[in-house]
Amino acid sequence: MNLYSLAKTFPNEEMALAFWIKTRWPNGVRCLACDHDKCYLIETKGTTRKIYRKFECADCGLHFSPTANTIFHDSHLPLTKWFMAITLMTEAKKGISASQVARHLGITYKTAWHLCHRIREAMQEPKSMKLGGESVTVEIDETYVGGRRRGQGVKGGKKSKTVVVGIAERDGSIHLQRVKSSKDWHIRPVLREKLDKKTEKVVTDGDKKYKSMFPKDRHVVGIHKHELYNKNWTSTQTVENAFSLFKRGLVGNYHQLSADHLDRYLGEFCWRYNRRGLQPWLFNMTLENMATRKPLPYKDLIF
């Protein structure tokens, strides 16, 4: 779904609302309180005399919004603007900043920032997802995200950086996650949670900490200086390419990220990367996720 197709498909709010209702309740609208299957779409006026469309349950009489208890919860933006923001984020290979979204939609930066984070919440892989498996080769490495601190030199700059561990299947999916440090005891829990025990082969660089994590018969070590000399960098090329793509988006679009929100940005990048062959359907997939994810209030984002 590109912007041109979006404008043709949803030229007004009524058509956007009808599509959202069908996406959320494909088998018919059901009451959020009593689960009754007879609900009627009615129009009510708010305190500002603006007309709102809500459902009324025929059994318990509950009035509820079509967007209640979803990512859209308590949003005053038209669905057409939401749909445009979703399209921009799913089509942007390297991400898009809240400032640019604000300019496209004609909204404030604060609103755009909250909007983008709520869409990112829907663009997160399930926690149960694992990488690897039988006949699958997985690459593991870590990288540093962040910039230097003025007046503190290289060492001070390295201390201010955030460590990100990456797990990548060759010709498959990836997982990037922030960790406290590159030490063994901080990386092990991530691998224990995300790496399938039946993975055929695990490829890492020459870092000593990885030697004790995997059986020797399944562990392949690549020495980068030898690969550079032979001009044959193949050991961790997949995960390194993923790191490079994310950092290009960071420098070119976001410029800087808070470490507190880094995992959500990483999740968005991985979700889009893992579905790189499903580009025409990303809009619908994101919208379906937004119907099932819990609301994300602004106060929860600013801690």
Structure in words:
There is one protein chain. The chain is α/β, with parallel strands linked by helices and 303 residues long. The chain has 2 domains: 3-122 and 280-301, no CATH class; 137-257, Ribonuclease H-like superfamily/Ribonuclease H (Nucleotidyltransferase, domain 5), CATH 3.30.420. The chain is 42% helix and 15% strand. The chain has 12 helices and 8 strands. The chain has helices at 3-9, 13-24, 79-91, 98-105, 109-122, 153-160, 184-194, 224-230, 237-254, 262-274, 282-292, 298-301, and strands spanning 39-45, 51-57, 63-64, 137-145, 162-169, 174-179, 201-204, 219-221. Helix 3 packs across helix 11 (282-292), helix 4 (98-105) packs across helix 5 (109-122) and helix 5 packs across helix 10 (262-274). The longest helix has 18 residues, at 237-254. It holds the Pfam family DDE_Tnp_IS1595.
List keywords for this structure.
303 residues, alpha/beta, Nucleotidyltransferase, domain 5, 2 domains, 5-stranded mixed β-sheet, 3-stranded antiparallel β-sheet, 12 helices, 8 strands, Tnp_ISXO2-like, Transposase-like protein, IS1016-like_transposase
**Strand order, biggest sheet?**
6-5-4-7-8
Helical content stands at 40-55%
Q: What is the number of E strands?
A: 8
The major sheet is characterized as: 5 strands, mixed
**Cα separation of the termini:** 34 Å
Total DSSP helices: 12
Query: In oligomeric terms, what are we looking at?
Result: single chain
Question: Which structural category do the helix and sheet elements fall into?
Answer: alpha/beta
Task: Sum up the overall morphology in one term.
Answer: elongated
Helix and strand string, N-terminal first? HHEEEHHHEHEEHEEHHHHH
Uncertain residue ranges:
none
Q: Please compute the radius of gyration using only Cα atoms.
A: 23 Å
**How many discrete structural domains?**
2
Strand content: 15-25%
Mean pLDDT: 90
InterPro entries: IS1016-like_transposase, Tnp_ISXO2-like, Transposase_Zn_ribbon
Pfam families: DDE_Tnp_IS1595 (PF12762), Zn_ribbon_IS1595 (PF12760)
Protein name: Transposase-like protein
Domain ISXO2-like transposase: 130-274
